[in-house]
Amino acid sequence: MGSLSGILQRPLIAAAAVGFASISSDFPVILPPHKSNDSELSTSSSSSSLSSCVSHISDSKLANLSFISRIRVPVPNINFPIPNSDCSNSGHKLLYSSPALLNLYHSADLGKAPNPPAYNKHDDISSTSLPEVSYRWHLPEPKAVDVSGTSDCSSAKMRTVVVLLGWLGAKQKHLKRYADWYTSRGFHAITFTLPMADIIKYQPGGKVEDHIDLLVTHLADWLEEEQGKNLVFHTFSNTGWLTYGVMLEKFQKHDPSVTGRIRGCVVDSAPVAAPDPQVWASGFSAAFLKKRSVATKGTTDANESGMDVLVDSTGVVAPKPAVTEAALLLVLEKFFEVVLNLPTVNRRLSDVLGLLSARQPSCPQLYIYSSADRVIPAGSVESFIKQQRRAGHEVRACNFVSTPHVDHFRNDPKLYTSELTNFLEDCVLTCCKQCH
Predict the structure, then answer these.
(1) pTM of the predicted model as reported, rounded to 2 decimal places
(2) Where residue 320 falls among pLDDT bands split at 50, 70, 90?
(3) 50, 62, 227, 431: least surrounded by Cβ within 10 Å?
(4) What keywords sit in the KW lines (predicted)?
């Protein structure tokens, strides 16, 4: 996007000062309520647990599950019953470790960060101190893995990595719920986030580019190891969407054939296919103000007591922003009117948005959005969907109507997961449709 260091930092800090008195230290966890799975995975109690081994499964049975052999592998203690199924629960085996199993249970080797610990899905994130890293690899749940290799559905999932690209201000803990949903169904998942400070100070060749390069190189290496491995992308807001565009650029430069391994793309709360100052202002305002922003509120009852509301031309009723937020939005919008028209910034954005509009992979697409989104207008998403359909892409879409920006999963988890399941089974992994 060109060099925003200095250009972007001081005006943003000045603008943010309008609302900074009400800003807390962490971004909101906009994830759905959950009972036992709400927790972040924690480190194992000692390094000896990383090498705990068991042996009764032959390497030949696990050979087709080898992944990322060149990456250091922290391995959790495993002694779970694994269904040996063709989409049924007809039998169980106990997993015992072997050299091939070490390759299955792996984590990403992160640059400039400690090697990720081995996780236990049910450990409590509140009691665990984990470093904030750019990306983290999440393993399929053992109960979702068919080590016998007899299930085509399980094998297809095990050879697919879902790459979750976070929204502006998202942290690893915010994306974990989505990763848990995918891993519980047998997929690998990667959660990728960009620190807010790095985005504000963005410049070509800087930290943002380093983070994305690291992930692109890792995924390219994983895909090259053997045939049959694929990617699915799940992006959030315009930040995740633009990150996806930059990754596509880098894949095409590294190896254009990689884009043919992308089997699907889920787009949550995006896109706006043009550099719109109002959208950028809304996004940064929501990131600064967090739960105090109207962007975190959905549609409401116009008669609800004590709340000022606005009714737009379509009849949608939404909360009215507070004075501080209205002032911050105004300052940010004026600021981005200047920044987004800087030649280097405009050229970079145009390149990425042009690729996403006209040169996306031929894979199916799913758009999840809402008429109540105060950051990304529903009309912009629907216009882009029409454009993609005219270009011949297979496109599905679901308007959640009343849910806020990147908050659809928490507000309506049943509909959200139903849309994901149908998309994955019908469009991405068609062999799994027969098993359900």
Answers:
(1) 0.72
(2) confident
(3) 227
(4) Membrane, Nucleus, Transmembrane, Transmembrane helix
* Domain spans in the chain, listed from the N-terminal domain onward: 9-49+114-435
Instruction: Give the SS3 label for residue 344.
Output: helix
pLDDT in tens, 343-381: 988 898 999 999 999 999 999 999 999 999 999 999 999
Q: CA–CA separation, 164 vs 266, rounded Å?
A: 9
Average pLDDT of the segment spanning 284-291: 88
Token couple for 131: 């470093």
Q: How far apart are the first and last CA of the chain?
A: 45
* Tokens found for residue 63: 């050979």
3-state secondary structure of 243: helix
Q: Which amino acid is at 431?
A: C
Q: Of 356, 432, 421, 367, which Cα lies nearest the Cα of 398? A: 367
SS3 content of the chain, % helix, strand, coil (to 5): 45, 10, 45
Q: Is 60 helix (H, G, I), strand (E, B) or coil?
A: helix
CB 203 within 8 A of CB 11: no
Distance CA 405, CA 311 (A): 18
Q: What is the number of helices (H) and of strands (E) in the chain?
A: 14, 11
Q: Residue 263 half-sphere exposure, CB side, CA atoms within 13 Å?
A: 21
Signed CA dihedral, 417, 418, 421, 422: sign only: negative
Q: Under 8 Å CB-to-CB from 224, ≥6 apart: which residues? A: 255
Kindly state the helix (H) or strand (E) to which residue 321 belongs, with its residue range: none
